[in-house]
Specification:
This protein is 54% helix and 12% strand. With 187 residues, it is mostly helical. β1 and β2 form a beta hairpin. The chain has two domains: 78 residues, no CATH class; 71 residues, Fe-S cluster assembly (FSCA) (GMP Synthetase, Chain A, domain 3), CATH 3.30.300. α5 packs antiparallel against α6.
Length: 187
């Protein structure tokens, strides 16, 4: 994981060259968008580094416990997922998020069973008959939003047991590798 000083210098020189190319764009709109993208990325990573320092300074823990503390921070969690550095695998993170969804569904008279995780796709089974929890499409959307927010690198979500037509919702774009499949609900 550690790179040599020469590799870091090469990367820094490449970044500088690309920034200069962006500054030379003849299209002012394209230049402004690219510059804003660069600045936003720098801001996000700068905030992530600041949070690492703040958390480190405020805790007496070290080692794996400290890494787990970092991973509980929403921004650091997203950065860890983006770079494949999260201390928990996708299934473990998914099961943690699923526990949150289950508790709210249980209050509505529903249960959500984990069936399996395969190739980054989670398979669930919804049981129950809550008539006060809205349409099946709204129930599906609530499940999807919660789970994709907690596990943005999830490749897909299939929930068996909603009797309505599958909802093909557009999930909010997240700054993680794209999902191979859209979420769908099997009848």
């Amino acid at each position: 994981m550690q790179q040599s000083i020469q590799e870091h210098q090469r990367q820094a020189a490449r970044i500088e060259m690309l920034v200069q190319e962006v500054a030379a764009f003849s299209d002012p709109h394209a230049r402004a968008v690219a510059e804003e993208l660069i600045q936003t990325l720098l801001d996000m990573y700068g905030e992530g580094l600041a949070r690492l320092l703040e958390i480190t300074a405020a805790t007496d823990t070290s080692g794996l416990a400290l890494i787990d503390t970092y991973a509980s921070d929403e921004l650091l969690n997203a950065l860890f997922v983006l770079h494949g550095l999260h201390p928990l695998d996708i299934e473990s993170r998914f099961l943690q998020a699923l526990d949150q969804v289950r508790s709210s569904l249980k209050l509505q008279g529903n249960t959500l069973e984990f069936v399996r995780m395969e190739d980054g796709i989670a398979y669930l089974r919804l049981q129950g008959g809550c008539h006060s929890c809205g349409t099946p499409a709204n129930l599906q959307l609530a499940i999807e939003e919660t789970l994709y927010k907690a596990v943005p690198d999830l490749q897909g979500l299939e929930v068996e047991g909603v009797s309505d037509q599958p909802l093909r919702s557009t999930m909010p774009m997240t700054f993680v590798p794209p999902r191979r499949r859209k979420a769908s609900i099997a009848e």
